[in-house]
Give the backbone structure.
Amino acid sequence: MLNQTDYKTFGDCNIDSNASVIGGAVLNNSNVSSYATVDASMLWYSSVTENVTVQGGSVIDGSEIIGSRSNINNGALIINSDIDNSTVSNSEINGPYLIGCTITDVIIYCDGEVKFINATITADSSGKARITEGTNAEINIKDELIFTNIYSTILIEDLTKETVSMNISADTPTIITGSDTVDCDLNITANDSISIRMGRTGLNPDGEGSDVTRSTVLGDFLHIYCNESAVENATLRMYYDDPTSSYETVAIYYYNTLSSTWEKLTTIKETSSGRTYYETHGLDHFSTFALMGVTSEPSNGGSSGGSSGSSKYSWVTSTYTPTSTESEDTTSGQPTPTKTVGEVSTDDVQETQTSTAPVETEDGGLPGFTAIMFIAGLLAAAYIIIRKRG
């Protein structure tokens, strides 16, 4: 049984027999059930269930906390949010839906429907909230802009930036001017009424930075969302005023979500009213776009081949092995004698020529040398026998 002195309730509260409400907790029109624990914390118009733990002076206001891995602690403040299997410590969360997240020492305020899934969010050196790369995180903003992979650590405030939206009537050429907000203009014709939203983003929402060799993304990514596949023809103009002389080419690329690669679009460069822009024509669908500068391929340095070393001579040597008719020097510690067979200048010999230096047999002697010595021995023996008979 719960000790009435361990907590206080106001309004219509429900605490089931499996829950634990202790440490002077305060509940106002809230529910605690299914083995959830509320310890020295406050619940206002909230629900805590499924083995959730709320402790350490935390405050839950107008929120729902579920999931056995959810742990709200260390003075966390949760306002108008849904928390599912997430840990929130010493943070203020206002508005988002957290699923499988770990949030520490930050303030997150979201205006609208935003879901953070499997995200690890901590504070940088200035206290700003940043999402850690490589955690299979997904960020869903109103089901219109979905970051499927946080491939680089980024501040939440840099994830999405300025946006421009407009409704387009069917068969009516329309220009969306965003040069002062999203650094682009769009001239579009559609065969049906559509809604267009153009937004600058710090990452490619579709999940990968540039895979173009020696490329640099100039400025932000541009994500264009359309609610219908009714685009007949569109011209995109992207503004970029910084110097680009260090790049061999500058062009607009779009991200092909089917092949997961960036593809180059035919691009022209123009200047108007003191601003430089890059323009591509004939678009019939939208995706994520980026202006990229590509540097030239470095020239191959070094020599083009040939023999190594500083000397122009190659010395041909061989190990000398005494024959059976010669005495072998067995003095301990003496190196095996070598003899120079020839000296050949590499300036005078072509690669296809065969060396004229004498060739030795596998046992180290010259070809036929042993046979000649054997015949000479026989002749000497015959000569001695003839002399004795005479």
